[in-house]
Amino acid sequence: MSLNAQEMENTRYELAENFRRTGLTEQQVADDLGISLTKLQNVMTLNQRSLEDPWILRNYLLEKVEENGEMVVPFSALAGDWHRHWFLNSRKIDSGKMSSGDF
Hints:
- By secondary structure, this protein is an all-alpha fold.
- It is built from five helices and no strands.
- Helix 1 runs parallel beside helix 4 (52-67).
- This is DUF2316 family protein.
- InterPro entries: DUF2316.
């Protein structure tokens, strides 16, 4: 499944706004996820190959926003239970481990 232009724009905004609400730096998030800053930027802008990576970032951000005592910005496209999407590898998302490489 692919997102249309509006869905991509909305998802980029939702990722960025939830990132902001974590109160963390890019380096802290990258370190927590075991990825490079380049990889983090690629996932934040939806310029990566793995469909699971944005979901992993989404789940991480939701947890950190709540830990920071902030209100979560709901996700429109990255919504619901990823286990129900046939095109996603739910085990990868459950593991919380991003794909290797910067893309």
